[in-house]
Structures are given as C-alpha cells and as structure tokens.
Design a protein that fits this description.
Number of helices: 1
Strand content: 35-45%
Mean pLDDT: 82
Strand order of the largest sheet: 29-36-35-32-33
Low-confidence stretches: 4-21, 233-242, 324-328
Length: about 425
C-alpha cells in the first residue's frame, strides 16, 4: 500500500509539474526551422500555421502535434479561410498563380493566373478575395477566376476586414487605406502617424487598432480618420535594430495581444486602454545571436492565443499568458452621480478626476448587455466633468454606467421611467 501511495504521489507531482510548466506562454514544436507568416485557429483544437517556404501545418490538438501539407513547389504563400478551405499563391516566372483546396490541403484546384507584383497578405469573404502586395491590391469577386487591379499602395503591409464590406490597409509611415464596398474602391488617408505601421485590427467597422515600429500602438473610433496614441507598459526590448510591434489580435472587445521584436508580447484586458508586458522566454534564432521576432499573433478567446515567428517558433498560452504575470495596478474609485433620478430619459452624469486620464464611459442594461458607448479613451483633464446623456429611446428600467480610465474607475445606476 505504501508503494502504491508513493507511486500515486509521484504521478500527481509529475502532473502538477507539467501543468505548472505549461502556464503562461510556452513553446510548441512544429518540426521545422522555417519562419512562419500565418496562424489561425478555429477552435481550441483545430488550426493552421503557414510558413515562408509554402508549407502548411495543421493541428487537431491545440498545437501539440502537427501534420504537414505541401502545395506544388512554386506556391510559396498559403492562407486558410476556414479549417478546410485554403489558398496558395505562387510566382513561377511571370504572372502570379492561385490554387485552392477545400479538403485541408489533400487536393488543389488547377492554377489561375493573375497580375500581382509580390505578395503581402489576403482576406477572403465568400467568393470575394482581396489580395495585396506592397504596391497594389487586386480583387476577385468570383472565387479567384477573374481579377481586377483596384488600387496602388504605398508600401502596404497588412489588410484586414471588419466584415464583408469594411476593410483596412496599413503600411508606410502614416499611410492608411479603407474601403466601404468590399474592396471595389479604396480611399487613402495620411494619418500623420510618424511610424511605419505593421498591422491593423478592427474591433468594429469604426473602432480600429494599429501597431508599428518604435513601440507604437494607435487607437481610433472614426474608421481611421484620426489616431490617438497609447504608450504600452515598459518592456526591456533588446537592441535588434527594430523595436516595435508586428501584429495585434483581439478575441473580443476587451481582451487582446500585441507581439513584436525580441519576443515581446503585450496584453490588454480593458479594450486597449492599458497594455502590460507578458513573460516570454527570449529565444535566439538557430546558430545565430539574433533574437526571434514574433511576426503574427492570434487570440481565440480571452485566455487562449498563439504567436508565431522566425526560425519555426510557435508560442501558446491557455491562461492569458500567465494572468498573474500581468501586473495590473488597482484602479482608484472616484465619486460620480447621475441626476435626476428617476428620469424619463434626459440625465446628467457628474464625475471628478483627481488627475488627467483617458476615459471610457459605457451604459449597459442590468443583465450586462451594452446599450451605448459615450466615449472611448478620451483624454480628460483633472477636475469636475458634466456629461448630458439622452436615454429617451431606451425602455423603462434600471441601467448601469461605467467610467474607466488608466488610473480611475466608477460605476452606478440609472433609473428610467416613461
């Protein structure tokens, strides 16, 4: 019995040790030294990673093991729309070619030629494909059979869509492009951001985040027409010649990650108002003294994410990157009130800020559903503030208001009676 008890204790200890070792960000092994450029999971088990040399890797166990699928040799770039449907792009001699798989890479369609000088990124919605190089974006509305050049670009880096109609491109210093008609027309805006932008993530069609060099994270609520800068928490980036972020991903309105040079990962839990450094092991490229850059990051939910980089590096977390490693300072409660109470719909929110802060104010129903966002990350000076609120169109009942900043927060009730 003592021997059995000893064995059980050892097994439990080993299980606990493994569980502890897997907390935070830990490495998963794909079996290649090839750099990665695409990662996407469709649930906690099934996902794809695609490499710079055209290989595609599929996992059915959350990234613990991988199976390799290789399209024909001349196809160097692979993108997966869902767990079954993938697109491979190649540049054999002259025109680019596109092939499609609908069975997880087992078979591929006949190639289709189209004009594109280089390749950076693509987005697929149904039969509509928007594909970009650094200098142009082309579009197909029939699943890749025919193509049309839609716009010229200034060093484009990344394209993403909020829905089938609203898309965004970032690239050269300060340049930003957007479409409201599925990519038929692209509009260029000079945002005056003084840094090259690497990636964009739309929370909604109007609320966007961008990241770029010099540790830049930009936030906007006007579909990109202006930008306000947030400075993330300090992270001791190594001298790699580039200090900044390559990608950003949100799983919902509040929870997101940004990844970049020297293996840096930042996390937010308040919709991007505050960013906190994650503990990751800085890994060198094989046989070099160069630090690995994390080129892409994908957040599945508030706790589950994968990050990919050079040299076959894949990192995974299932606990938000180690929740305890995110050093979130406690917010100070400030005084606030709404008057009159009860009201037929017109009320005034009064609150006082001890110091300048970036403030977000939301109204939710009693069950937590969002009714309205009154402001998002607006810089406000210290002192008393009065905010008129019109809830005349809201049904009678009790609502909650929430005031959140980098340092302060407050909340309370609003009673509406018609």
């Amino acid at each position: 019995m003592k021997r059995i008890a000893f064995i059980i204790t050892m097994l439990l200890t080993a299980s606990l040790t493994v569980a502890q070792a897997q907390s935070g960000w830990h490495r998963q092994y794909v079996g290649t030294d090839d750099g990665f450029r695409f990662v996407k999971f469709f649930d906690k088990n099934n996902g794809w990673i695609c490499g710079n040399a055209g290989n595609a890797f599929h996992s059915t166990d959350g990234g613990e093991t991988w199976k390799t699928f290789t399209p024909p040799a001349e196809f160097s770039y692979v993108y997966f729309q869902d767990d079954n449907t993938g697109y491979a792009v190649g540049n054999p001699v002259s025109n680019f070619k596109l092939i499609i798989t609908k069975d997880k890479g087992k078979t591929w369609s006949d190639p289709v030629d189209f004009m594109l000088y280089g390749y950076r990124d693509m987005v697929v919605y149904g039969d509509t494909i928007n594909m970009m190089s650094d200098q142009q974006i082309v579009r197909s509305s029939d699943g890749g059979k025919t193509w049309k050049l839609e716009a010229g670009l200034a060093d484009g880096n990344r394209v993403r869509f909020a829905d089938s109609q609203h898309g965004y491109i970032v690239g050269a210093t300060g340049y930003f492009y957007y479409t409201v008609n599925s990519g038929i027309t692209w509009f260029e805006i000079q945002t005056h951001v003084p840094y090259k932008l690497s990636s964009v993530f739309p929370l909604t069609k109007d609320t966007l985040f961008v990241v770029g060099e010099n540790d830049y994270i930009g936030f906007n609520t006007e579909a990109g027409r202006s930008f306000t800068t947030w400075t993330p928490a300090h992270h001791p980036l190594k001298d790699t010649g580039y200090t900044g972020y390559y990608d950003i991903s949100f799983s919902d309105r509040y929870h997101g990650f940004a990844s970049g040079s020297s293996g840096v990962i930042q996390r937010t839990t308040d919709g991007g108002l505050n960013w906190y450094s994650q503990e990751t092991t800085v890994i060198y490229l094989k046989d070099t003294s160069d630090f690995v850059a994390l080129r892409r990051i994908f957040a599945l939910d508030s706790l589950t994410a994968w990050a990919i980089g050079d040299g076959g590096l894949l990192l995974h977390t299932s606990d938000g990157g180690g929740v305890n490693s995110v050093k979130e300072p406690p917010l100070q409660t400030i005084s606030s009130q709404v008057y009159p109470q009860p009201s037929s719909g017109d009320v005034t929110l009064q609150y006082s800020l001890p110091t300048t802060d970036k403030i977000t104010i939301t109204i939710t129903s009693i069950n937590g559903s969002e009714v309205r966002t009154l402001m998002t990350g607006i810089l406000q000076n210290e002192g008393e503030h009065l905010l008129p609120i019109n809830l005349r169109s809201s049904a009678s009942g009790q609502y909650q208001y929430s005031i959140t900043g980098k340092t302060y927060h407050s909340q309370g009730s609003i009673i509406i009676i018609h």
